[in-house]
Amino acid sequence: EVPSRDWVTATRGIPDTSYTLRGLRSDRDYRLRVCPETEYGAGEYSLPVHAHRRTVPLLPTREPTLSNISPSSATLSWPPASLLSGTPSRPILYRVEGREPPSSTWYDVASRVPSTSYNLQFLYPDQSYMFRVFADYDGVESEPTLAVYLPCRAGPPKMPREAPYVSSVQPESLILSWRSVELPTRITDYSPVTYKIEVQEHPSSEWRPLERKIPQTHFHITKLRPDQDYSFRVRAENEYGVSDPTDAVLVRKRS
Q1: Nearest 5°: CA angle at 96, between 94 and 100?
Q2: Parallel, antiparallel, or unpaired for β 230-238 and 194-201?
Q3: Which pLDDT belongs to residue 176?
Q4: Does 57-150 match 165-251 in CATH topology?
Q5: Are the CB atoms for 96 and 110 separated by under 8 Å?
Q6: CA distance 129 to 123
Q7: What pLDDT shows up at residue 186?
Q8: What is the pLDDT of residues 177-210, one digit of tens each?
Q9: In this structure, which long-range contacts are made by residues 203-212, counting pairs with CB atoms below 8 Å and at least 24 apart in sequence?
Q10: Dist. CA 112–CA 127, nearest whole Å
Q11: Which CATH number fits domain 57-150: 2.60.40.10, 1.10.1040.10, 3.30.870.10, 1.20.120.910?
């Protein structure tokens, strides 16, 4: 008897491959399984079948929808469940489950939800989620809906690969300019972005930081050596991380 996990023998010695079970309670659900027996012992059990004696709500299995998406919240909505004709009229409640990829473990987000929408709160902007819904009628749950996927709403910025542009070149200084940052698809948290310039002094292949926390898309670089070749590239950064660098621009000796 569901929800018990214990199995009990209902009957045995059945000579045929069908049997009518009697004396079942109308207010109970049952799981049933069968195994063969011979004089040498019992065989393997069949997979269990679930016998629903109580009314199961019918919930459309299509994905719920997501709206009002922000970095830490979203609204989850789904179509209403229905009941078979003639079923006593009692409220249908809903239960929401979530999981956080790559984990495969589902956990309860909300239960006994009286409406067909739920406001998801306290989400981590840099975490992806999946959500699904069950309908509950008088303690009996439907099959779940398909899961809807909510990708990260925030993350490191993305710089265009295009190399920076050099202007106002002097023996010991220049102005470096670059295109503004691109935000990854579906990001809604426009976390403040600053820029970092990296320099390479030839013939060395090592890149080192030259300046950080630049709030605009240009910077006046000074204290250069006129007899030195330089390469410059730019990265963007915010509270979620650092972008890949742009392509490098080469600045030849100025003397």
Answers
A1: 175
A2: antiparallel
A3: 97
A4: yes
A5: yes
A6: 9
A7: 47
A8: 999 986 555 454 456 889 999 999 999 999 999 9
A9: 207/233, 212/237
A10: 26
A11: 2.60.40.10
List the chain residues with pLDDT less than 70. Answer: 2, 26-27, 52-54, 182-191
Write out the two tokens for 209.
């930081």
The per-residue pLDDT for 52 is 64
Cα(39)–Cα(249) distance, integer angstroms: 86
CB atoms within 10 A of CB 56: 20
CB 219 within 8 Å of CB 135: no
Distance CA(79)–CA(86), nearest Å, equals 21
Identify which of 175, 112, 51, 129 has the alpha carbon closest to the alpha carbon of residue 120: 129
Beta bridge partners of 131: 98, 148
Return the closest-CA partner of residue 128 out of 74, 191, 79: 74
Per-residue pLDDT reduced to its tens digit, 214-223: 999 999 999 9
Burial, 159: exposed, middle or buried (Cβ in 10 Å; 0-12, 13-18, 19+)?
buried
Which amino acid belongs to residue 188? T
CATH number of 165-251: 2.60.40.10
CA–CA gap between residue 32 and residue 51 (Å, rounded): 7
Return the domain boundaries, the chain.
57-150, 165-251
